[in-house]
Design a protein that fits this description.
The chain is of the alpha/beta class and about 300 residues long. The chain folds into 3 domains: about 1-80 and about 260-280, NadA-like (Rossmann fold); about 85-160, NadA-like (Rossmann fold), CATH 3.40.50.10800; about 170-250, NadA-like (Rossmann fold), CATH 3.40.50. The chain contains 14 helices and 12 strands. The chain has helices at about 1-10, 25-30, 35-45, 55-65, 90-100, 110-115, 125-130, 145-155, 175-185, 200, 210-220, 235-240, 265-270, 280-295; strands at about 15-20, 30-35, 50-55, 70-75, 105, 120, 140-145, 160, 190, 205, 225-230, 245-250. The chain is globular, with a radius of gyration of 19 Å. The chain binds 1,3-dihydroxyacetonephosphate and iron/sulfur cluster (SF4).
Length: about 300
């Protein structure tokens, strides 16, 4: 399987991009394993003709928006993001009509059509900076993750109106479970993703995107960590820090959509050159503006 994929990759001049929540074997075969922000940046820069996006639908759509002349393959077509489905373009248009002067900041975990209705995108790695880039006298509507929105609003010291969306995987974790894990591993540092509830992030030693967690674990003097994000990240955490111990905060921290991609599906995608993800030009042009504004924020 491994050799077949490598051969096909060469024949197609393809690059394999993997999110940090993917299965270990997918991360191992990928050219880049990264968070949502880095995947978007790399997709925008690649010389490859084909991008195999091992992640969920909105990530492949972002690659298709940023690289209209490339073929973008999503090995498992049904790998969606339930949070992204919590906002439709119609509902967002209705909310915008109620708040005509608001700047719409949209988490990349959203459809291309929703991005097209937005002013600027953000990821969990740059949400605070994106909010800080908006003039202080402007009202902000944050879409769709209310947990990330609340966390970023607090960090940026900014009031925002939140959409009622959440990640079904991260939002399940309770503060009681975090305290339970701390009791079990009293020496451990607790790091959690901002998609967790505010009552959970409030108890953590470190709150950041997946790439931020990798950095924190590498740079910390601590030897033990409790990890409050999707369990796929354990692969890189353990690989990069063989002398440190990582414990998942709760066994339910699994995103079924992220686990739907297998090596077999990657091979079939490269063989058949499908499923291809495309975005209609009239949506792409507007969604691109929101993504480009985000990528310009330093
Ligand atoms: P990041 O990799 O940007 O932290 O994303 C988390 C996530 O849930 C992606 O679906
Ligand atoms: Fe969506 Fe949550 Fe899965 Fe990320 S972890 S893809 S936000 S459902």
């Amino acid at each position: 399987m491994w050799e077949d994929i490598k051969q096909l990759k060469k024949e197609r001049n393809a690059i394999i991009l993997s999110h940090l929540y993917q299965r270990p074997e997918i991360q191992e075969i990928a050219d880049l394993v990264a968070d949502s922000l880095e995947l978007a940046r790399r997709a925008a820069q690649t010389d490859a003709d084909v991008i195999v996006l091992c992640g969920v639908h909105f990530m492949a759509e972002s690659a298709a928006i940023l690289c209209p002349d490339k073929i973008v393959l999503l090995p498992e077509e049904d790998a969606g993001c339930p949070m992204a489905d919590m906002v439709t373009p119609e509902a967002l248009r209705a909310k915008k009509a109620e708040m005509p002067n608001a700047v719409v900041v949209t988490y990349v975990n959203s459809s291309a059509e929703v991005k097209a209705e937005s002013d600027i995108c953000c990821t969990s790695a740059n949400a605070v900076k994106v909010i800080q880039s908006i003039p202080e006298d402007k009202e902000i509507l944050f879409v769709p993750d209310k947990n990330l929105g609340q966390f970023a609003a607090k960090q940026a010291n900014r009031e925002m109106v939140m959409w009622e969306g959440h990640c079904r995987t991260h939002d399940l974790v309770t503060p009681e479970e975090l305290l339970e894990a701390k009791k079990k591993y009293p020496e451990a540092k607790v790091m959690v993703h901002p998609e967790c509830r505010p009552e959970v992030t409030a108890l953590a030693d470190h709150v950041s995107s997946t790439s931020g967690m990798l950095r924190y674990a590498r740079e910390s003097q601590a030897k033990q960590f409790i990890v409050g994000t999707e369990s796929g990240i354990l692969h890189q955490l353990c690989k990069q820090n063989p002398d440190k111990e990582f414990h998942i905060l709760h066994k339910k921290l699994i995103c079924p959509n992220m686990k739907a991609t297998t090596l077999k599906k990657v091979k079939e995608a490269l063989e058949n050159m499908r499923p291809q993800i495309t975005v209609p030009a009239h949506i792409r042009e507007r969604a691109l503006k929101s993504l480009e504004r985000m990528l310009e924020v330093k």
